[in-house]
Amino acid sequence: MYVELKNINKTFGDVQASRNVGFGIGRGVLAALLGPSGSGKTTILRMIAGLETPDSGDILIDGARVNDVPPGRRGIGFVFQNYALFRYMTVFDNIAFGLTVQKEPAAAVRRRVFELLALVGMEGMEKRYPARLSGGQKQRVAFARALAPNPKLLLLDEPFAAIDAKVRKELRAWLRDMIHRLGVTGIFVTHDQDDAVETADEIIVTNNGRIEQKGSPQMLYKAPATPFVTSFIGSSAPLENYRRLKGFENGSGSATGAVRPEFVKIFTAVDGITYENSVEDAVVEDTAFRGTHWEVTLKINNMTVPARYSLEKTPIAPGDRVKALVYRLYAFVGDSVTLLENRNLDSHNGANRYII
Q: What is the CATH number of the domain that holds 202?
């Protein structure tokens, strides 16, 4: 592992921002620290950077303990949330700032700055001032400035927070491509799951100062380890008593859980439905157009259940009575999560099937 945190604890007054935090990030990996406000993600980033000191535990970078190493000697590039560009400096001088402080030769500074301008797609803009740049361009300049001293580790605090939606999507792909092309290790903080899922190789989910789960975006989405991750990653709705749903009556332990919209099928009167005992009576509470599909809110047995509905099917509207099949859900057992399949659809248990 290139970056390792071992049993990190950090307290601010009465607030414990980090509770036995431990994880590792491999060399060349782009990782996201993802969590709600106050979950401890920014504190972790600042401790890795050396801007905060842990109360206990060890921080290792490339195998070396860095707890007592000053920020400037950790070989880290840092991109701040508000870019922190110098308003009265040109793009060239902003990028060159760190190299100038290190008293690098002028020719080497110039060569490195123009190399970085080409890398971030800012050629020809070296004489502009920050006031004449868009949000996406400012972020690229901040990125280039952080890369100027050739760091092996790049830290970014909410890198997409101040950027509009269209540029944000483009910048996610651009950042991922740059990190992989350069071979540096990157860690960024975000509270936006789309930023994390679309950009990161690995996601570290934080909550209440703890690490809830670490893994690839696909793993966290498909196999959430805790109820918090289930609710925070993707779109899901809580179920207070999933045993009221057909096919899940015999669940063990707690009856609480969650269901995602892709786990639900909607049928209208014109659909051919076989084995009616496998589906539920449902009422459409709300619909929302999402471009490629409808997002639908259903009421089933006094429970709110989300679903997705194809644009190609017969239109439905709030108040309509439909049939719905919940064929999968997450059951919560203490702090763990189990994926349950509708037993009525088990080919080894009566083969109650449905036809769309």
A: 3.40.50.300
